[in-house]
């Protein structure tokens, strides 16, 4: 019998979340009197751990997909995706241009070397591209002083027949916090004023909190939501459920042993938790080698047999322990939801571990079997 741990991915939840984001954008566009933006569904990092093929199925109603790994883009095509695919980091060598050409991929251009490589390439078709502005994130993109020259050079490559549709993009660094997007958006609009082509500026946080930034009348607009499409939140102060989003991944395991503790008995490595009274704990077939965060301490939420409870003691490589006091009927074989549907949110677990939901979803280990729930 396989070890009793698994992750399930609901393509219905993925589709629901995409539709929820779309309706949110449409409402903002109606209020602004502008067309609703199109959606690049971001599926980088193996669709945030949910699986490329499952994401292709769940996001079939998206206008486009966005990622950064060329091999994952090829998998999308092999899975039947025929729409646009945006490569968020562009390409890395001249040989990559042939892959962009063969699989009809849209590239981001964010540094001069990419322009140099394109100038000496001969793709069989015009490559669509977005020229990225570094508006303050200081990660990828041309600086404010260099951007218009880079865009002019991209237009020259379009005149040569190397590039096709040219767009403009940036990435917001503080859309999830009190600083918002005002300064970066003002920079983007100032630098790109008068330049033709589609625009893409909004990540998950900006899409949810500032949808009016994407609703434009002057250019075709695209947003790039990521984590919210998987039912997790980009915010510290607002849960995903507040936007009507559903968790797409559920990580669950079973109790494989129970222990009866006396007052003063310790649990797990280091004896970090000691029972204050007689209690029973369940040993669950999940640990940090499965991708569960080792720093999730006593009090981290879990659901046992449908009843909310807590973890106790230190996470081991292959096991963790849960308090069975709220669920006395639980025993060997009882299902434990560690995060997801009918359990705590991945964001609540991440908060208890001092990290973010993104990391936990991406970190589920290959040894955990993942299946499609619907």
SSE blueprint and pairings:
Elements: E1 5-9, H1 11-32, E2 38-42, H2 44-48, H3 52-58, E3 64-67, H4 70-78, E4 85-87, H5 94-102, E5 106-109, H6 112-119, E6 127-132, H7 147-159, E7 163-169, H8 182-192, E8 199-202, H9 204-209, E9 221-223, E10 249-261, E11 266-267, E12 273-274, E13 279-284, E14 301-304, E15 307-312, E16 320-323, E17 335-339, H10 346-352, H11 357-363, E18 370-372
Parallel strand pairs: 1-18, 2-3, 2-9, 3-4, 4-5, 5-6, 6-7, 7-8, 8-9
Antiparallel strand pairs: 1-10, 10-13, 10-17, 11-12, 13-16, 14-15, 14-17, 15-16
Structure description:
This protein has helices at 11-32, 44-48, 52-58, 70-78, 94-102, 112-119, 147-159, 182-192, 204-209, 346-352, 357-363, and strands spanning 5-9, 38-42, 64-67, 85-87, 106-109, 127-132, 163-169, 199-202, 221-223, 249-261, 266-267, 273-274, 279-284, 301-304, 307-312, 320-323, 335-339, 370-372. The protein is α/β, with parallel strands linked by helices and 374 residues long. The protein has two domains: 11-232, Alanine racemase (TIM Barrel); 249-372, Beta Barrel (Lyase, Ornithine Decarboxylase, Chain A, domain 1), CATH 2.40.37.10. Strands 2-3-4-5-6-7-8-9 form an eight-stranded parallel barrel, surrounded by four helices. The protein has a six-stranded antiparallel β-barrel with strand order 10-13-16-15-14-17. The longest helix is centred in the first third of the chain and has 22 residues, at 11-32.
């Amino acid at each position: 019998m396989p070890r009793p741990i698994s992750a399930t991915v609901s393509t219905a939840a993925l589709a629901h979340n995409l539709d929820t984001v779309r309706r949110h954008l449409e409402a903002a566009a109606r209020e602004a009197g502008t067309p609703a933006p199109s959606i690049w569904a971001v599926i980088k990092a193996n669709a945030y751990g949910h699986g490329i093929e499952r994401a292709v199925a769940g996001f079939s109603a998206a206008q486009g997909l966005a990622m950064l790994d060329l091999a994952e883009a090829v998998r999308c095509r092999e899975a039947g995706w025929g729409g646009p695919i945006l490569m968020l980091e562009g390409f890395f060598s001249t040989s990559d241009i042939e892959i962009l050409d063969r699989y009809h991929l849209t590239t981001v251009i964010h540094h001069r070397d990419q322009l140099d490589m394109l100038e000496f390439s001969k793709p069989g078709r015009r490559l669509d591209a977005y020229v990225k502005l570094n508006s303050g994130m200081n990660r990828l993109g041309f600086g404010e002083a260099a951007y218009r020259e880079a865009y002019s050079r991209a237009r020259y490559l379009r005149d040569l027949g190397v590039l096709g549709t040219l767009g403009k993009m940036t990435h917001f660094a503080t859309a999830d916090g009190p600083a918002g997007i005002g300064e970066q958006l003002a920079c983007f609009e100032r630098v790109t004023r008068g330049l033709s082509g589609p625009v893409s500026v909004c990540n998950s946080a900006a899409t949810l909190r500032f949808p009016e930034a994407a609703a434009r009348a002057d250019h075709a607009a695209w947003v790039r939501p990521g984590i919210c499409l998987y039912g997790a939140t980009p915010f510290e102060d607002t849960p995903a459920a507040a936007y009507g989003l559903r968790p797409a991944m559920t990580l669950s395991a079973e109790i494989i042993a129970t222990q009866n503790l006396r007052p003063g008995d310790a649990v797990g490595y280091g004896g970090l938790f000691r029972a204050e009274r007689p209690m029973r704990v369940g040993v669950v077939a999940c640990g940090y080698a499965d991708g569960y965060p080792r720093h999730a301490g006593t009090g981290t939420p879990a659901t046992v047999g449908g009843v909310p409870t807590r973890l106790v003691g230190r996470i081991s490589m292959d096991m963790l322990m849960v308090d069975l006091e709220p669920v006395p009927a639980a025993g060997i074989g009882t299902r434990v939801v560690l995060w997801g549907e009918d359990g705590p949110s991945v964001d609540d677990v991440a908060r208890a571990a001092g990290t973010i939901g993104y990391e936990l979803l991406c970190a589920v280990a290959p040894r955990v079997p993942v299946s499609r729930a619907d």
